[in-house]
């Protein structure tokens, strides 16, 4: 499907929701998930116990604005359902939702809530469904305010063979007098051995700047975790040999990163699939001060966005968020020889503005494998809609096509 826009920069979505084969590419199927708001961003996919495929994302006017809420749609057959809003705190920007089918048959929705563009105020909330997302229980606080910073999450919960739950998070540190920009973010794992009743925080050592930790169980007694880099240099990786109770320090992989989200999943054959932007700061021609430099902040907290500190490594915002690439590793994430672009473009993201069609990023991807073996991917297009694509592993390896 070619990305089409109107003269004003708005996406021409065509018939939304209906998954169709792509002309000239028999192995690829795709659709735009029906949007509910001006902005749609940060999709997460999850196969559900009833056989459908769920997708959640956040939508509203613009990230950081208090009308940002979590939305949910499901794929049954070849149709995505009309979106349903699942959070409604109009005093917070509610972001990064994910679905977690718990072993007891319940379905959890987990998401963050922050004041304006201040991720260092973020808390984590949850709701639970007993009927595969047809109805939902009350909103509860999973992780409340923390001294000196906020708690953020993006990636799915991993359930280990020993029954432990691992929820990767990162800590958005506050700096006196300064707005959050990400310079001091570090990663951790919230570990529960009692089905989410209590949690222990396990810090990832030397993880400054490594966020969006995406954990995969390699089924060989080890876990691997892959990270977005605030420095916009590379995807990083760390490993655990004790069920997530300790981690090695993250190290750069061969894959580039542009300070935008990635996601990894283990396939049934043991291979890993990753979706990411195949770009880094080396591809940037401009740089933003912060992620939220184009919204008004009405929190009146007296903090300011500081100038970029050239004496230290600092968060790099503004690297083009394109192309959107799907990669395969056959050796536990040590090498990634197979890569193919799902989408190409200039990836312009010096603004998050969707109302005027100024943003042109492909970003925040999610990838899962269905029971039929196909790879299911969802990602942001221009911050206006979520696109769904289904391909096979062979499609990724067929780079001549």
Major sheet details: 5 strands, antiparallel
List low-confidence stretches. Answer: none
Task: Report the helical percentage.
Answer: under 10%
> Which strand order spans the largest sheet, edge to edge or round the barrel?
1-2-27-26-25
Q: What Rg is obtained from the alpha carbons, in whole angstroms?
A: 19 Å
Strand percent estimate: 35-45%
Mass-distribution shape:
globular
Distance between the amino and carboxyl termini: 15 Å
Q: What is the tally of helical segments? A: 1
Mean pLDDT: 96
- The oligomeric state of the chains shown is single chain
Secondary structural class: mainly beta
What's the helix-strand series?
EEEEEEEEEEEEEEEEEEEEEEEEEEEH
For the secondary structure, the number of strands is 27
Structure described in brief:
The protein is mostly beta strands and 401 residues long. Helix content is 1%, strand content 43%.
């Amino acid at each position: 499907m070619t990305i089409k826009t109107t003269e004003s920069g708005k996406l021409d979505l065509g018939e939304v929701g209906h998954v169709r084969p792509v002309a000239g590419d028999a192995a690829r199927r795709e659709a735009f998930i029906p949007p509910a708001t001006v902005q749609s961003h940060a999709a997460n996919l999850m196969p559900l116990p009833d056989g459908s495929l769920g997708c959640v994302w956040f939508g509203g006017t613009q990230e950081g604005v208090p009308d940002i809420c979590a939305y949910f749609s499901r794929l049954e057959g070849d149709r995505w359902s009309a979106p349903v809003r699942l959070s409604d705190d109009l005093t917070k920007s509610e972001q990064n939702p994910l679905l977690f089918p718990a072993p007891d048959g319940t379905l959890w929705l987990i998401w963050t809530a922050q004041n304006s563009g201040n991720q260092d105020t973020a808390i984590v909330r949850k709701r639970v469904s007993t009927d595969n997302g047809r109805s939902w229980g009350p909103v509860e606080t999973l992780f409340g305010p923390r001294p000196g910073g906020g708690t953020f999450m993006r990636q799915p919960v991993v359930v280990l063979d020993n029954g432990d739950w691992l929820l990767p998070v990162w800590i958005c540190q506050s700096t006196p007098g300064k707005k959050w920009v990400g310079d001091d973010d570090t990663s951790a794992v919230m570990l529960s051995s009692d089905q989410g009743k209590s949690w222990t925080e396990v810090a990832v050592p030397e993880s400054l700047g490594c966020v969006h930790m995406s954990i995969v169980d390699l089924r060989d007694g080890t876990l691997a975790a892959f990270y977005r880099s605030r420095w916009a240099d590379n995807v990083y990786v760390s490993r655990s040999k004790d069920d997530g109770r300790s981690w090695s320090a993250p190290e750069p992989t061969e894959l580039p990163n542009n300070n935008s989200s990635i996601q990894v999943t283990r396939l049934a054959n043991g291979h890993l699939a990753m979706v990411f932007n195949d770009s880094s700061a080396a591809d940037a021609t401009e740089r933003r001060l912060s992620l939220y430099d184009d919204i008004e902040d009405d929190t009146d907290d007296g903090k300011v966005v500081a100038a970029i500190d050239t004496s230290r490594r600092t968060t790099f915002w503004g690297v083009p968020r394109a192309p959107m690439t799907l990669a395969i590793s056959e050796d536990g994430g040590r090498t990634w020889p197979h890569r193919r672009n799902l989408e190409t473009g200039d990836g312009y993201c010096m603004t998050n503005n969707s109302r005027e069609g100024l943003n042109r990023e492909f970003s925040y991807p999610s990838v899962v494998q269905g029971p039929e073996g196909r790879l299911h991917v969802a990602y942001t297009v221009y911050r206006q809609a979520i696109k769904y694509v289904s391909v096979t592993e062979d499609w990724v390896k067929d780079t001549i096509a």
